[in-house]
Protein backbone atom coordinates (compact mmCIF):
# COMPACT_ATOMS: atom_id res chain seq x y z
CA UNK A 1 0.00 0.00 0.00
CA UNK A 2 2.78 2.46 0.90
CA UNK A 3 4.59 2.06 -2.43
CA UNK A 4 1.36 2.51 -4.43
CA UNK A 5 0.53 5.67 -2.49
CA UNK A 6 4.07 7.00 -2.74
CA UNK A 7 4.21 6.47 -6.51
CA UNK A 8 0.84 8.19 -6.91
CA UNK A 9 1.77 11.08 -4.58
CA UNK A 10 5.05 11.93 -6.34
CA UNK A 11 3.38 11.70 -9.78
CA UNK A 12 0.51 13.93 -8.59
CA UNK A 13 2.96 16.61 -7.38
CA UNK A 14 4.93 16.48 -10.63
CA UNK A 15 1.77 16.73 -12.76
CA UNK A 16 0.13 19.61 -10.89
CA UNK A 17 0.36 22.80 -13.03
CA UNK A 18 0.74 25.09 -10.00
CA UNK A 19 3.79 23.04 -8.95
CA UNK A 20 5.46 22.96 -12.39
CA UNK A 21 8.71 24.42 -11.04
CA UNK A 22 9.06 21.37 -8.75
CA UNK A 23 8.62 18.71 -11.45
CA UNK A 24 12.28 17.69 -11.66
CA UNK A 25 13.02 18.54 -8.02
CA UNK A 26 10.96 16.20 -5.85
CA UNK A 27 13.13 13.99 -3.64
CA UNK A 28 12.78 11.50 -0.78
CA UNK A 29 14.53 12.49 2.46
CA UNK A 30 17.12 14.97 1.16
CA UNK A 31 17.87 16.90 -2.03
CA UNK A 32 21.17 16.28 -3.81
CA UNK A 33 23.80 18.89 -3.00
CA UNK A 34 23.60 22.05 -5.12
CA UNK A 35 19.94 21.42 -6.07
CA UNK A 36 18.47 24.80 -6.99
CA UNK A 37 15.30 26.12 -5.40
CA UNK A 38 12.45 25.55 -5.45
CA UNK A 39 12.52 21.89 -4.52
CA UNK A 40 10.45 19.53 -2.39
CA UNK A 41 11.56 16.82 0.03
CA UNK A 42 9.11 14.23 1.36
CA UNK A 43 9.28 11.64 4.11
CA UNK A 44 6.86 8.92 5.14
CA UNK A 45 5.69 9.31 8.74
CA UNK A 46 4.74 6.15 10.64
CA UNK A 47 2.26 7.68 13.10
CA UNK A 48 0.81 11.15 12.87
CA UNK A 49 -1.26 12.65 15.65
CA UNK A 50 -1.26 16.37 14.95
CA UNK A 51 -4.43 17.86 16.44
CA UNK A 52 -4.59 20.43 13.60
CA UNK A 53 -5.41 17.79 11.01
CA UNK A 54 -8.94 17.38 9.69
CA UNK A 55 -10.93 14.30 10.59
CA UNK A 56 -11.29 11.59 7.95
CA UNK A 57 -12.52 8.05 7.50
CA UNK A 58 -9.69 5.55 7.75
CA UNK A 59 -11.02 2.12 6.87
CA UNK A 60 -7.67 0.45 6.09
CA UNK A 61 -5.24 2.98 7.34
CA UNK A 62 -3.99 6.49 7.42
CA UNK A 63 -0.61 7.17 5.89
CA UNK A 64 1.14 10.50 6.23
CA UNK A 65 3.94 12.29 4.46
CA UNK A 66 5.86 15.27 5.74
CA UNK A 67 6.75 17.67 2.95
CA UNK A 68 9.33 20.42 3.04
CA UNK A 69 9.45 22.93 0.23
CA UNK A 70 12.59 25.01 -0.13
CA UNK A 71 12.55 28.41 -1.79
CA UNK A 72 14.79 31.43 -2.23
CA UNK A 73 12.30 33.54 -0.26
CA UNK A 74 9.65 33.00 2.42
CA UNK A 75 6.99 34.05 -0.10
CA UNK A 76 8.12 31.45 -2.68
CA UNK A 77 8.35 28.57 -0.18
CA UNK A 78 4.97 29.40 1.36
CA UNK A 79 3.30 29.75 -2.05
CA UNK A 80 4.39 26.24 -3.05
CA UNK A 81 3.25 24.85 0.31
CA UNK A 82 -0.15 26.46 -0.22
CA UNK A 83 -0.40 24.90 -3.69
CA UNK A 84 0.36 21.49 -2.22
CA UNK A 85 -2.22 22.02 0.53
CA UNK A 86 -4.87 23.00 -2.00
CA UNK A 87 -4.05 19.98 -4.16
CA UNK A 88 -4.20 17.38 -1.39
CA UNK A 89 -6.35 18.65 1.50
CA UNK A 90 -9.88 17.26 1.69
CA UNK A 91 -9.65 15.03 -1.36
CA UNK A 92 -12.67 13.17 -2.64
CA UNK A 93 -12.34 9.40 -3.18
CA UNK A 94 -9.83 8.58 -5.88
CA UNK A 95 -8.16 5.40 -7.16
CA UNK A 96 -4.36 5.42 -6.87
CA UNK A 97 -3.41 2.05 -8.36
CA UNK A 98 -2.69 -1.38 -6.95
CA UNK A 99 -6.38 -1.74 -6.10
CA UNK A 100 -6.11 1.05 -3.50
CA UNK A 101 -8.07 4.25 -3.24
CA UNK A 102 -7.86 7.40 -1.21
CA UNK A 103 -11.08 7.89 0.72
CA UNK A 104 -10.10 11.29 2.07
CA UNK A 105 -7.17 13.38 3.16
CA UNK A 106 -6.11 16.02 5.63
CA UNK A 107 -3.42 18.67 5.88
CA UNK A 108 -1.51 20.25 8.75
CA UNK A 109 1.02 23.09 8.58
CA UNK A 110 4.27 22.77 10.49
CA UNK A 111 6.65 25.57 11.56
CA UNK A 112 8.64 27.31 8.84
CA UNK A 113 12.43 27.06 8.78
CA UNK A 114 15.37 29.10 7.54
CA UNK A 115 18.83 27.66 6.94
CA UNK A 116 21.46 30.39 7.35
CA UNK A 117 24.26 28.42 5.71
CA UNK A 118 22.40 27.86 2.43
CA UNK A 119 19.98 30.80 2.75
CA UNK A 120 17.07 28.44 2.03
CA UNK A 121 13.56 29.13 3.30
CA UNK A 122 11.63 25.99 4.23
CA UNK A 123 7.85 25.64 4.35
CA UNK A 124 6.66 22.43 6.00
CA UNK A 125 3.43 20.50 6.16
CA UNK A 126 1.96 17.05 6.73
CA UNK A 127 -0.53 15.44 4.39
CA UNK A 128 -2.51 12.42 5.60
CA UNK A 129 -4.20 10.02 3.20
CA UNK A 130 -7.02 7.73 4.37
CA UNK A 131 -6.53 4.62 2.23
CA UNK A 132 -8.74 1.58 1.60
CA UNK A 133 -9.14 -1.28 -0.88
From TrEMBL:
Alphabetized InterPro entries for the sequence: Gp17-like
Pfam family, one: Tail_completion_gp17
Top-level taxonomic group: Bacteria
Protein name as catalogued: DUF3168 domain-containing protein
Organism field: Luteolibacter soli
Lineage: Bacteria, Pseudomonadati, Verrucomicrobiota, Verrucomicrobiia, Verrucomicrobiales
Amino acid sequence: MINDLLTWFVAAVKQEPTLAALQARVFPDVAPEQTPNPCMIYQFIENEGEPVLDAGAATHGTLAFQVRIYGDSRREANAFRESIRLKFQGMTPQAIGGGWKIEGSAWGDLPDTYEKETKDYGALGVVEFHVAR
